[in-house]
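User: Fold this; tokens only.

Assistant: Input:
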Amino acid sequence: MVIFIGSLLLGIGINGFLVPYHLIDGGIIGIALIIHYYFHLPVGLLMVILSTPLGIYTWLREPAYFYNSVIGLFVSALFIDWLAPLKEQLQIPILVSALLGGILIGLGTGLMLRYKTSTGGTDLLAQFVAKALSLNIGIVIFLIDGLIVTAGLSFLGMITFIFSSLTILTVGVTSSLIIGRPDMRFKA
């Protein structure tokens, strides 16, 4: 159920609020969105393709993370591509869109991570880093996402970069609040 709800929130957040303004999230989703904006390929399919190398690494190193995230990856990819028509349904200002998109994506990501699943991609990388360094995974995701958006600045333009950065900040804060402290997590 967590994967279903988290994936639904991701699909709505991405298609309803980010895609209309060509905003990006960080991580694999952000990279998939950049490719989508240039080549019009399905974002969910791109997520699966881009996540494959890290998925293989995870399968070899931490099989439990792999099995929990592969389901999240495929269900999220399905919802993201299925909800693609939302990009033409909502017309709200870019600031509100960046904030609402960030909140929905942060809720979906945080919910999935709280119950030990994810969408794969850099969420898996963040899980490894957070575990190794005893850091809050939401903060690690925020840092990785910030690096990806900063690297994509030349592709995005300054306005899109600023609002994408706001989205990523909102995703990071929201997911951190949902995940909570490690000793406060529910048992899955």
